[in-house]
């Protein structure tokens, strides 16, 4: 394999040399005195075929209600869907009987959800796009795509957390997942998390909602909090895509990077909601509750309604805010979830309003031809007056309400972690990095159980990076601008493989700005702004609090369910009832090994795949 470089760095040179949008020079010369030959356009970015907006009805995923006494089945399948009326039915991947994405799972706080998971996937629909130079990806994955289901936001035992190395092959048994649901009611989601092909699997369709209910937020009419329910509570799974001329999804964004090579992420030019391109939804002229998620692979969006009407944010990933926050817009990074109340009562019958975005792509992406993806869907006011209840004044701390979110705790330790993108040519190619490390490097974070830490996320890149920690919820303390050039000049970055996250305190360019009111609740993903230090405060729970050992060792084979304490002797029962060592044993042609702990990573899925993801352990 020859030297390769990051897609943006490669294309940046091409775009800089042709900033006017043309290549220097002409193809051939015409006769003397003739008009000059037209310039050659620089084909840096693929664009989707033309599609008419707002011609498809918005679909809503089916719902599975979890029971503590009855397991639910989740099956990954190869299927097909029609993303737009004027496009053909094309291959997708999905869970259960959905044509794309997965059903919404509704579970209850304190009642365990048991999932029997299996894969019936056929050849990967992006088989030719998988990059076998990335961590652990083999040629086998093209015909037998591996998966690893992760409950994002779940306070989950490590063996059931969707570890990226705990991989399931198609047609090779059933994996049992146990989700305790011993956490506050909130908005979770489940999606694939397989090592180095997460973007391909999720982009293909392996993602779904998971709503955790309790006695306050029941999801039924007449719930104590007075929130819309039933047909007035709607999931909005927002995504971006590029489509090929033949209507198929395109995992590629540029012809400059050959097929089968990692690209680094791209802005889509078609907005999807619940698997439809620019759909429309008829709404009653009253109050709705929208459970919104940015399920995109790359983009941060600034979301608002086309008439600039106000609405209310009532919750983040980990549950409700103390009170509704009235706003006209908010920023949503990949994997962030927002609980919204939207009142359509001011609209006349037949009047329309669109859900919009006006946040431009990062500068380098814009230079390459990537454009603002400005529309997601249209709402059409119907004749029905709908739910006319008032917006609650409080959500926590009152009678029949959950306890208020407490003030942010005082941290016992400050931990510096870095986000960077080395640009030089290398073999393997330039990568995205946390702490200047690769996933397999041994210098991992080891917070102690029962301690509260402040993590200063030092983003020296100009781009945003949504950072997600498995197992825990946290609070955003604030963001401070960083003099990144001076910081790097004073602290030269060593080669990849040496931990690098110097103290940034001498290089701040301004005061800390606290979180926006609409992101001030319990979070599991934070928008780490480019050129800033983003500070979060997180408490790492103890085994007694969790009801399980967060540092247990477990097998990479998801069809085995066993754990042992750190330092113990690894044995697991075989089919014959005998015991065997769990490490380095072939299972279905794959080698199993001991795994331990959780991961934290960027939720730009290309970045996560290569290699902006690290392990961490909660130690006693």
TrEMBL record:
Q: Which domain of life is it from?
A: Bacteria
Question: Any idea where the Plastocyanin-like domain is?
Answer: 147-214, 435-538
For this protein, the record's InterPro entries field holds: Cu-oxidase-like_N, Cu-oxidase_C, Cu-oxidase_fam, Cupredoxin, TAT_signal
Q: Which keywords accompany this UniProt record? A: Signal
Please tell me whether the keyword Signal is annotated for this protein. yes
Give a yes or no for keyword Cytoplasm in this entry: no
The signal sequence is 1-34
What family does the entry list? Belongs to the multicopper oxidase family.
Know the name of this protein? Multicopper oxidase domain-containing protein
Query: Which organism is the protein's source?
Result: Gordonia tangerina
């Amino acid at each position: 394999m020859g030297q390769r470089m990051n897609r943006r760095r490669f294309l940046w040179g091409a775009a800089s040399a042709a900033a006017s949008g043309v290549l220097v020079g002409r193809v051939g010369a015409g006769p003397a005195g003739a008009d000059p030959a037209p310039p050659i356009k620089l084909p840096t970015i693929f664009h989707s075929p033309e599609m008419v907006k707002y011609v498809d009805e918005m679909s809503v995923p089916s719902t599975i209600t979890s029971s503590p006494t009855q397991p639910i089945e989740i099956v990954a399948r190869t299927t097909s869907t029609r993303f737009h009326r004027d496009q053909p039915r094309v291959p997708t991947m999905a869970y259960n009987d959905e044509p794309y994405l997965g059903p919404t799972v509704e579970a209850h706080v304190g009642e365990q959800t048991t999932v029997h998971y299996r894969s019936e996937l056929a050849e990967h629909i992006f088989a030719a796009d998988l990059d076998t130079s990335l961590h652990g990806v083999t040629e086998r994955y093209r015909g037998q795509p591996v998966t690893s289901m992760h409950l994002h936001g779940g306070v989950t035992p490590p063996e059931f957390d969707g570890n990226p190395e705990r991989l399931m092959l198609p047609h090779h048994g059933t994996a049992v997942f146990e989700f305790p649901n011993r956490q506050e009611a909130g908005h979770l989601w489940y999606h694939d998390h397989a090592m180095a092909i997460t973007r391909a699997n999720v982009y293909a369709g392996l993602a779904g909602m998971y709503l955790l209910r309790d006695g306050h937020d029941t999801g039924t009419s007449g719930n104590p909090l007075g929130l819309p329910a039933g047909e007035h509570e709607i999931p909005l799974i927002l995504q971006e895509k590029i489509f090929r001329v033949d209507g198929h999804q395109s995992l590629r964004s540029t012809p400059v990077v050959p097929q089968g090579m990692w690209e680094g992420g791209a802005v889509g030019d078609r907005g999807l909601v619940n698997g439809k391109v620019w759909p429309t939804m008829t709404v009653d002229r009253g109050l709705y509750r929208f459970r919104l998620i940015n399920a995109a692979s790359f983009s941060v969006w600034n979301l608002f309604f086309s008439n600039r009407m106000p609405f209310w944010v009532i919750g983040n990933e980990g549950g409700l805010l103390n009170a509704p926050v009235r706003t006209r817009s908010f920023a949503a990074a990949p994997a962030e979830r927002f609980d919204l109340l939207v009142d359509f009562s001011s609209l006349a019958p037949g009047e329309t309003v669109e859900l919009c975005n006006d946040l431009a792509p990062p500068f380098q992406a814009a230079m390459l031809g990537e454009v603002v993806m400005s529309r997601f869907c249209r709402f059409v006011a119907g004749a029905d007056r709908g739910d006319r209840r008032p917006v609650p004044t409080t959500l926590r701390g009152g009678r029949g309400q959950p306890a208020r979110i407490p003030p942010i705790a005082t941290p016992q330790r400050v931990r510096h972690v870095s986000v960077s993108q080395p640009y030089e040519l290398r073999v393997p190619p330039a990568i995205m990095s946390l702490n200047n490390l690769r996933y397999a490097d041994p210098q991992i974070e080891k917070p102690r159980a029962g301690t509260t830490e402040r993590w200063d996320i030092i983003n020296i890149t100009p781009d945003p990076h949504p950072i997600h920690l498995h197992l825990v919820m946290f609070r955003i303390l604030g963001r401070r601008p960083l003099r990144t050039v001076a910081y790097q000049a004073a602290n030269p970055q060593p080669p990849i493989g040496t931990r690098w996250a110097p103290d940034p305190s001498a290089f701040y360019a301004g005061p800390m700005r606290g979180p926006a009111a609409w992101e001030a609740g319990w979070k599991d993903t934070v928008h780490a702004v480019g050129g800033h230090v983003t500070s979060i405060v997180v408490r790492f729970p103890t085994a007694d609090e969790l009801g399980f050992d967060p540092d247990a060792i477990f097998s990479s084979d998801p069809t085995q369910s066993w754990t042992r304490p750190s330092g113990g002797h690894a044995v697991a029962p075989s089919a014959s009832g005998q015991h065997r060592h769990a490490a380095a044993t072939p299972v279905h042609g794959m080698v199993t090994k001991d795994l331990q702990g959780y991961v934290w990573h960027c939720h730009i899925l290309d970045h996560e795949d290569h290699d902006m993801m690290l392990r961490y352990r909660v130690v006693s």
